[in-house]
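Reproducibility note. Readers wishing to regenerate the assembly model reported in the main text can use the exact inputs given here. Chain order matters: entities are listed in the order in which they were concatenated for prediction.
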Amino acid sequence: MATVDLKDVKKVYAGGIEAVKGVSIAIPDKELCVLVGPSGCGKSTLLRMIAGLEAISSGTVSIDGKVVNEISPTDRDIAMVFQNYALYPHMKVYDNMAYGLRNRGTPKAEIDSRVRSTAKVLELDHLLDRRPRELSGGQRQRVAMGRAIVRNPKVFLFDEPLSNLDAKLRGQMRVEIKNLQRSLGVTSVYVTHDQLEAMTLADILVVMNAGLVEQMGAPLDIYEKPASTFVASFIGAPPMNLMALGRDGGQPHLADGAKLGVEPPAAATTLGFRPEDALVLPPDAKQGGFVLPAVVEAVEPVGAESFLHCAAAGSRILVRVSGRATAKPGDKLAVAANSDKIHWFDASGKRV
Amino acid sequence: MTPRVVFPNRVLPYLLVAPQLAITLVFFYWPAGQALYQSMLKEDPFGLRSKFVWFANFEKVLSDPAYMNSIKVTTVFSLATAIVAMSVALLLAVMADKVVRGKGIYRTLMIWPYAVAPAIAGMLFLFMFNPSIGTLAVLLRKAGFAWDPLLNGTDAMMLVVTAAAWKQISYNFLFFVAGLQAIPKTLIEAAAIDGAGETKRFWTIIFPLLAPTTFFLLVINTTYAFFDTFGIIHAVTGGGPGKSTETLVYKVYNDGFVNLILGDSAAQSVILMVIVIALTAVQFRYVEKKVHYG
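Running the prediction on these inputs yields the following structure tokens for the assembly.
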């Protein structure tokens, strides 16, 4: 139905604070783009600029090929799901959903059939006569979704829509949003700070940091090839182990002087490997490659997997083992990683 | 429901509310009781003897055409004052909400008129609109209006309504500003995205959500117009010309303290009490239910 194009979009606030420092993203038709990043990275500001709720300082936002910088949110033909749902408290669920259609002069009969069919899809049909205060959090969330869907807009915008739900409901709604978005085929922009939501929902994942795009691409590509130490530590849970490299005398070594066992690229100053890529070996294992002697400091059993917090080569690393861990705090072991699972980053944090 | 706080001490709570109770008793229940008693007494012209006459004073007052006129005047005056004061305040509050620079100064200045005493406010308007020396009266006359509040009852009514409303606007403004700030901004944004223009947003979202504030102010403004405008009327028109601005409260004063018909005056104040109690009860019973959203 529509593409969304951001070209060098910037947001400068009155005090000279730059919230968004030049972001360009092209979202193809029917795809779901997730903006993810820590709080204050500019992702919500960017979303609000797409919605028209925030003026664009420079650059252009286009929807369906048309620059919308000067078009008010009223006329952008978008729908937004807010973090606090923003349901109209004085209106029944039915009227909440019908409000946008009425404002656009849709015939009454059509409003009725659209509201009812949307309510059916979202299993809200028995709640149409209730007011928002009589609904549970999950139901309110559905009404907010319904209000967006019923309008059949060009673009859906989601501003952390699941962050007020409990973990179980969040998981359910995540799947539901993905299915709805796919079946409706509406181009969407989704803002979240939850990397799990970002990974599972996104067609295009945009990792933002300090007003800039750190990396953009398919979620698994980003997971496998993080472009920077920031992305490496933000995407993936638990985050990637990062260890600084020393290099005096030309020989690369770790913080405590231990040899690496693998040859790093010339520019590399940081080594990284994911907890799930680490292998646990007995402490006296005679194996080539990247092997570190480590001491277990703590064990976190989760059930299907366990996390070992270890001290190795002067830093703390995290290792994931599947199932029940046999190691106990104080145990000595060796942690290894295959050379193709090791990520290298240069002094500026960029991937090498 | 908030949990109840219970005092462990049995005497302390009574001691704590005692001053308030004493004040209420001395300054409200006692005079009210006196008024009730006095409303059934008839005094001789010299105030030497009085006779218990049951409801004769009420019968006399309620069959008096001047009293009926006063009811009419009060209704017109109260409605006009409440409507003018509230709608102007709402307009100003909505506008003030849009001000970006100097919001604080703007709001502070808007509140000043509330600090002006009713009689002073009345005098201000009396001078401004005095047909012989008033600045604004001259302008009105130049604009072709035959303005004369000293002779024309409608003009006099407009004048007292203006003065009374002017004084109350600040108060209403304050509450409307607070009410507007309490409306979540995302609701307005959601409505904008839902395709509602500014005017439509106001009438479909903001105004209904302000209803609790509006209702509260309606009660306050009616009470204000009924009772607290005595000073303004006394200073500006003295109930005249004729009896065209003689509100119920003013008539109580006039009959009781000027004409010294104490029994009539007391009966009127009892009726006034009943009217206000009934009005407030009706407002709370029927209107309040419809205006609260969770």
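We highlight two features of this model. The radius of gyration of chain B is 23 Å. The interface with chain A takes residues 184, 186-187, 189-197, 200, 204-205, 208-209, 211, 293-294 of chain B (CB under 8 Å).
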